[in-house]
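Ticket reopened. Same input as before:
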Amino acid sequence: MRLPRFQYLEPRELEEALEMRDLYGARSAVLAGGTDLLVRMKQRLMGPAFLISLRNLKELVGIRMEGKELVIGAGTPLQEVSRSPLVQHHFPALAEAVQAVGAYSIQQVRGTIGGNLCQDTRCLFYNQSAFWRSGRQACHKAGGKICYAREGSDRCRSTNQSDGATALMALQARVTLRNSQGHRDLSLEELFTMKGETPLDLAPNEILTQIRLPMERPGRASTYERIAYRSAIDFPVASAAVWLESERGTVSKARIAVGCMGNAPLLILQAGESLEGRPLEDTQALAKAARIAMDQASAFAVENVGATVEYRVEMVSVLVERALHRAAARAAEAKGKEHA
Amino acid sequence: MSRVPLSIKVNGEELELMVEPHWTLLEVLREELDLTGTKEGCGEGVCGACTVLLEGEPIRACLTLALEVQGMSVTTVEGLAGEKTLDPLQESFIRHGAVQCGFCTPGMIMAAKALLLKNPCPQEEEIRRAISGNICRCTGYAKIVEAIAAAAPQCNSSIRGPLQGPGEEPT
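Engineering reply: fixed in the latest deploy. New output:
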């Protein structure tokens, strides 16, 4: 498959890249690892006139502590994230999620955490070759007025299948978006628009530069679970990330994020709240939270990423429960160590 | 649109090429350099047939713009064999019958090479993980895993196929 023609730009520093974004705006795209973007370009889902390569921008690569935050450069390769002792120790959900992306020999080496977070939403009726799509009218995401995933839908129902985004949502990540004038600082809830057509609140003159995570304390734990047809080179059909904070063996706060169901990872507040004040070993409470997550997520899912929607919804409850069990054990263990 | 210069080292040879910005590394290897050992399977990063080594790390040549590897060193399957001898990994693939139609083989060998460069004594689990990004539709992978394990004969691998029975001399 051939790529369409474009002009290749290689800025030497971030300021230069931002000037190019200012100048070319929506006619430009940002090239990081390319494992998602180039596929979309080959399928003619995108045809930017200008590709701005980030390969010389070393300031976008790296993981470091800054005050009470862990700052991950958006251009950091996935394997560097999953191998980072800081990430493994404090944010195991992120390490687990990033490790599950693609396969080691490709996406892990070339793919970046920023690219993983910003990957476009997907749909079986959209992510196809130009020839395949030429047999039908354009859908909402392709600029038309039809949805093939849900009959009669007045908007795009494409699905966010990013592993990284789901984990980062549970971990309360924030992102920094830069433009030539300044920057915006958004939570993930703000970054995702919940619109399938334009899933990210990322302006054509902006570049995602940083992902920031509030530093963890003992008693907090996180995990990530997913189900895919094959363990490598495949997007998940259902996923869940959970984050627990505990005090004296009792859950004080919980964040439960469900992936692959909506246009964005879904933060199920009610499921998290149902755990507050419950002992870590209260398995019934964990199961109940998982059912709440499943019920709420089921409103979003449509049949557009492979497995049947009934199966995927059912798996939300299974995955959330598994993730909660592991996180509760992790939190209890961390607490034990602290007292020892 | 005009061609732009690309300096690249392929299989140890420094090259100065003129390429179109939209060419992938795979297109440059196969069509400009006639290194057709590297295959194009899916062209979208799913099958692994186009795996080559970039500075020793396995990458998808079909999803890598040629200009993105400016000044870097690329190894393709053609770069493994000596003038008269094959790489031990290639010998092992032949001995173990790890090749059927052969289309996935160059990518499989490069993914395995990347593993052995870093980890000369991999466990079966590590071998399977290393080639998890490479699809083979013929062999069922068992022979391939055996062949990779046998390419590291000094390691007393626990992965044994019929060719590695007790008493057999490692090659």
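Chain B touches chain A at residues 1, 4, 20-24, 27, 43-46, 48, 51, 54, 57-60, 62-65, 67-68, 111, 114, 129-135 (CB under 8 Å). Residues 164-171 of chain B have pLDDT under 50 and may be disordered. Please confirm and we'll close it.
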